[in-house]
From TrEMBL:
Keywords: Amino-acid biosynthesis, ATP-binding, Ligase, Magnesium, Metal-binding, Nucleotide-binding. This is Lysine biosynthesis protein LysX. Gene3D superfamilies: 3.40.50.20, ATP-grasp fold, A domain (3.30.1490.20), ATP-grasp fold, B domain (3.30.470.20). Pathway: Amino-acid biosynthesis. GO terms for biological process: lysine biosynthetic process. It comes from the Archaea. SUPFAM superfamilies: Glutathione synthetase ATP-binding domain-like, PreATP-grasp domain. It comes from Halovivax asiaticus JCM 14624. Its cofactor is Mg(2+). InterPro entries: ATP-grasp, ATP-grasp_RimK-type, ATP_grasp_subdomain_1, LysX/ArgX_preATP_grasp, LysX_arch, PreATP-grasp_dom_sf, Rp_bS6_RimK/Lys_biosynth_LsyX. Residues 96-279 form the ATP-grasp domain.
Length: 294
């Protein structure tokens, strides 16, 4: 059965092209929604959202993603991912709190609000440790701090940046991973596929040039992925894990996950699997709407 699916975007990347192609091949009606042109009134949904069975949030900017999903939820328009999941995953502090609260292994983290308290937190961790922005992706603005002088210089630099988020210092233990980390794409905690991202650099991110190969997802990985997904609210997620002597630890959960690199690294047809789940989600949303109106 054909469904009407909206795609919220600010730029059509390779990932969105893969999704659009798969949706159209199946005969679904796709409405492209450029959020740069969107006007969201309190209490009144714009006409472009009318009659949509499901909206997929593919916003590049975190702030847009969070607010768009909140408006869609308020309008009663089903959206992937939901506003609660977006709000948690868009903020590393909220993500860490959610993971830890659910008992999911995650790196030790301390948050501070002044350069002095941040330096104290860094000294408590010892060197090296990691300083991350509370909002951000692709490994940008992350710093591995190897010495007191480096800590002082980086903290001084961050303190001069204007945005209030740079006044929140997110300090994390450095996990001495074996030159790689793991990315698993999952839908409501069920893995679709995974890849190993390897690099000589301490940031093993595909966007930063890491080499990608297929990951064999064993029961231990699947269990951690399911628990991490539940902790942040579920949905279509990219869950990043690192290997430690004590098992796996989850260091990030991505709610507008990219999958171009994953699709090229595995035998699974990733866009097809994602669209399978979107169809199921749209059907479930339609059933729920019928129950409410019955």
């Amino acid at each position: 059965m054909s469904v009407q699916i909206g795609i919220c975007y600010s730029r059509i990347r390779a990932d969105e092209k893969l999704l659009l192609s798969e949706l159209r091949e199946r005969g679904h009606d796709v409405v492209k929604i450029d959020v740069r042109e969107l006007e969201l009134a309190i209490g009144e949904a714009p006409e472009i959202l009318a009659d949509l069975d499901l909206v997929v949030d593919r916003c590049l900017a975190t702030s847009r993603s969070v607010y768009v999903t909140q408006f869609l939820s308020a309008y009663g328009v089903p959206v992937v991912n939901g506003s609660e999941t977006a709000t948690v995953c868009a903020d590393k502090v909220r993500t860490s709190l959610a993971l830890d609260g659910a008992g999911v292994p995650t790196p030790a983290t301390t948050v501070a609000f002044t350069t002095d308290s941040a330096l104290s937190a860094i000294e408590s961790f010892g060197y090296p440790c990691v300083l991350k922005p509370v909002v951000g992706s692709w490994g940008r603005l992350m710093a591995k701090i190897d010495s007191p002088s480096a800590a002082e210089a980086i903290l001084e630099h961050k303190s001069t940046l204007g945005h209030y988020e740079h006044k929140v210092f997110y300090v994390q233990e450095f996990v001495d991973k074996p030159g790689r980390d793991l990315r698993v794409l999952a839908v409501d905690g069920e893995p679709i596929a995974g890849m190993v991202r390897s690099s000589d650099h301490w940031i093993t991110n595909a966007a930063a040039g890491a080499e990608t190969t297929a990951l064999e997802i064993d029961d231990e990985i699947a269990d951690v992925v399911a628990a991490a997904s539940d902790a942040v609210g579920g949905g279509l997620l990219g869950i990043d894990l690192m290997e430690t002597d004590n098992g796996y630890t989850v260091h990030e959960v991505n709610h507008t996950v990219e999958f171009k690199a994953l699709n090229g690294a595995v035998d699974v047809d990733v866009p097809a699997a994602v669209v399978d789940w979107l169809e199921e989600t749209a059907d479930s949303a339609a059933d729920s709407k019928l129950e409410v109106t019955a």
